[in-house]
Amino acid sequence: MTIDQLVQTTLGGLAIGCIYSLIALGISMIIRATDILHFAQGEMLMIGSMAGLSSFWLQGMPFWLVLLAGVLGGGLVSMLVEVVVYRTLRLRRVSAINIMIATLGVSIVLQNVARLVWGSEPLRYPTLFASGGVKFAGFTVSPQLIWIVLLSGLIMGVLILFFRFTRLGIAMQAAAQDPDVAQLMGISVDRTTTYTFAISGMMAGAAGVLLGSLFFASFNMGFLTGIKAFVAATLGGLGSIAGAMIGGLIFGLIETFSGTLISTAYKDAVGMVVLIAILLFMPTGLLTRGGREV
Amino acid sequence: MLRLSNVSAGYGAVTALRKVDISLEAGEVVALIGSNGAGKSTALRTISGLIRPTAGTIEFQGEVITNLSPEQIVARGIVHVPEGRRVFPRLSVQQNLTVGAFSPRAHGKEKATRERVFELFPRLYERRRQLAGSLSGGEQQMLAFGRAMMAQPVLLMLDEPSLGLAPIVVEEIANAIDYFRESGVTILLVEQNAELALSLATRGYVIETGSIVLSDSSDRLLENPKVWASYLGEQEWEFADGDPAQAANT
Ligand SMILES: Nc1ncnc2c1ncn2[C@@H]1O[C@H](COP(=O)(O)OP(=O)(O)O)[C@@H](O)[C@H]1O
Ligand SMILES: [Mg+2]
Questions:
Q1: Is residue A286 one of the residues assigned to a domain?
Q2: Residue A291 counted as domain residue
Q3: Which of A44, A216, B52, B73 is the most interior residue, by most CB within 10 Å?
Q4: Which of A167, A171, A186 lies closest to B74 in CB terms?
Q5: What contacts A189, CB < 8 A, 6 or more positions away?
Q6: Which ligand is closest to the CA of B37, given by its number?
Q7: Could you tell me the residue range of the domain that residue A190 belongs to?
C-alpha cells in the first residue's frame, strides 16, 4: 500500500465512518431514553436519502436544500412511528422485547412502502459536490469525502452543544436518566421521547443523503447500513454518545481497510466478525455507560 | 391550601393508601410519619400526579388537581423531592439546577434563584461543574433541595430527607427546611425519623398500612405513648432501659 493509497483509504474510511456515527448516535440516544434497540434506524436513513433525491427531482434543488429535505424526511418519519406505534405499545405496557420486535416490523414495512413509491432499482444520486480533486497536503483527494467528514462533524458538534447547554437538551438527558424524577420537574417524558426519535431520525436522514451521494439510493439501503451502525454503537459502548461517534469512525476504517487489503467482497462479513469479537472479548464496548445514563 | 379527601391509591392490585384525609394551611409545616411501607411515599406520589388515585379528590388552592399530569401539577407550584435524593447522576450540579427550573413558571427567576442556591449551599457552587453522581450523600441532598428551590415551590413535599445521612448533615437539612419556611413555602415533611420531623413541624399525621390513624400537634404527638411505642420506640435501645420521656429531652 502506497502512502497515497493509505491517505485515500483513511479518508474514505473516515467518511463512511462518519455516516455510521450519525446513525449509531440515534441508536444510542434511543436506547438511553427508552431501553429499546431501534431496528428501523437504518430505514430512517433510507427515507432521508429518498426524500433528498425526490426533492432534487422535483425542483433541482441546491445541495443544502437536498440535505435539509433528507433531514426533515428522516425526522418526520421517525417521529411519526414513535407517536403512532411505539408510544401506543408503551402505553399498553408491552414489554421492551416485544417493542423491539415491532421495530423490526416497522423496518420491513418501511422498506416495502419505499419499494412501492421509489421502485426496486437502485437510483442514481446527482453529483452534489464539485467532482474535481482538491489538493490537500500534497495529496489529491475527493472533495466529496472531505465534505462528508466536515458536515458530519458539524452535525455532531451541534448535537453535543444542544445536549450540554440548552434547557431542552439537558431535560432530555434527565428524562433518560430518571424518567420519574424528570416528571416531577415538569418534564413530559412522552414528549422528550418523541424529540429523541425526531433528532435520531434527522441525523439518520442526513446520513442518508450523504451515503446516497457516495453510492446510490435504494429501498433496502438502510438494512445492512443499520446493522453496521448497530455494530458501531456496540463497539463504542451501547448507549454512549461519544462511544457511538468513535465506534462509527473505527468501524468505517476497519471496513474500508479490510475492503482494500483483503477484498471488497468480504467487507460486510468482516464487520460481522468484528461484532462477534466485540461481544466475546469486550462486551461493554470501548466506553461504557451505567444503566439508563449518558 | 392542600386538601386530600378520602383518597385511595395503589399499585395494580396492591392498595397502598386507604381513604386518606390530609389538609394543610398556607405557610404550615406538617409532618407525615409512619414506619417503612406505611404508604408515606405513595401519598406524596399521588399528590404529585405520578400515580392516579383510585378514589377521592385532591384540591390545591381551591382547584381540583386529582387527574392532572405531574407536569401540570408542578406548574401549580407543588414540588416533590423524592426519597433517596434522586439527583440526575450524569448531569453536572449546574445542569441539575437547570432541570429544576424546567417548568415555565420558574424560567423568569432562574438566574436569581441559582445565585440564591449557591449562597445557601456554597459547596454546590464549588462543585457546580462536577457530575452529581460524584457528590457525597449530604451534598446530593443539598442539590436535591437546590433543585427544588429552582422550581419555585408553593408547596414543598420532602420524602425522608434525613435518610442515611450523618447527624451533622441532618442539621443542615433542618436549616434548609427553615429557609423554605421563612420564605413562606408550605411544607409536607415525610419521615421515619419521627423525632426529627415533629421537631420541625407544628402538626403531624401518623400513617399505618395506608390509613391515617392519628393527627395532632407535634407536641402532643411527641408525648403520645402510642407514637412512642411505634415510631420513637425503635430508638429506645439506644438509651438502654431509659425512660422514653427522658430520651426525648436528650
Ligand atoms: N412500585 C410499587 N409496586 C407495588 N407495590 C408498591 C410499590 N411501591 C410501594 N409499594 C407498596 O406500597 C406500600 C406503601 O409503600 P410506600 O408508600 O413506599 O411506603 P413508605 O414510603 O411509607 O415506606 C408498601 O406495602 C409497598 O410494598
Ligand atoms: Mg417511602
A1: no
A2: no
A3: A44
A4: A186
A5: A175, A179, A182, A183
A6: 1
A7: 3-281
Cα-Cα-Cα-Cα dihedral of A77, A81, A84, A89, to 10°? -170
- 0.90 exceeded by the pTM? no
Asked, for residue A290, whether it belongs to a domain, the answer is no
Question: What is the C-alpha separation between A163 and B134, in angstroms, rounded?
Answer: 20
Measure Cα distances from A36 to A31, A97, A171, A267, B93 in Å: 5, 8, 19, 28, 28
Give the C-alpha separation, B198 to A105, whole Å: 57
Which three cell numbers mark B13?
A: 392490585
In a domain, B179, yes or no: no
Residue nearest to atom 2 of ligand 1 (CA): B11
Expressed in angstroms and rounded, the spacing between residue A189 Cα and the centre of ligand 1 is 23
pLDDT recorded at residue A288: 59
Q: How confident is the model at residue B110 (pLDDT cuts 50, 70, 90)?
A: very high
Of A17-31, A224-238, B105-119, the range with the lowest mean pLDDT is A224-238
Q: Are A178 and A34 in contact (CB under 8 A)?
A: no
**C-alpha grid cell, residue A22:** 450519525
Candidates B153, B114, B175; CA nearest to B26 is B153
Domain that holds residue B29: 1-77+155-160+185-250
The domain spanning residue B232 has which CATH number? 3.40.50.300
CATH number (domain holding residue A36): 1.10.3470
State the total domains in chain A: 1
| Cα–Cα separations (whole angstroms), residue A107 to A37, A50, A270, A275 | 12, 15, 24, 21
A288 at B interface, C-beta within 8 A? no
In a domain, B18, yes or no: yes
For residue B93, tell me if it sits in a domain.
no
Mutation site, B65, B99, B113, B158, interface A, largest A CB count within 10 A:
B99
Per-residue model confidence (pLDDT) at position B44: 97
Q: How far is CA A106 from CA A36, A182, A226, A230, A238, in A?
A: 14, 29, 13, 17, 22
- Cα-based angle A60, A66, A71 (whole degrees, multiple of 5): 155
The residues with which B158 forms a beta bridge, in sequence order, are: B81, B189
Residues A39, A23 contacting (CB under 8 angstroms): no
Q: CA-CA distance, B67 to B76, in Å (whole number)?
A: 13
CB pairs under 8 A between A and B: 67
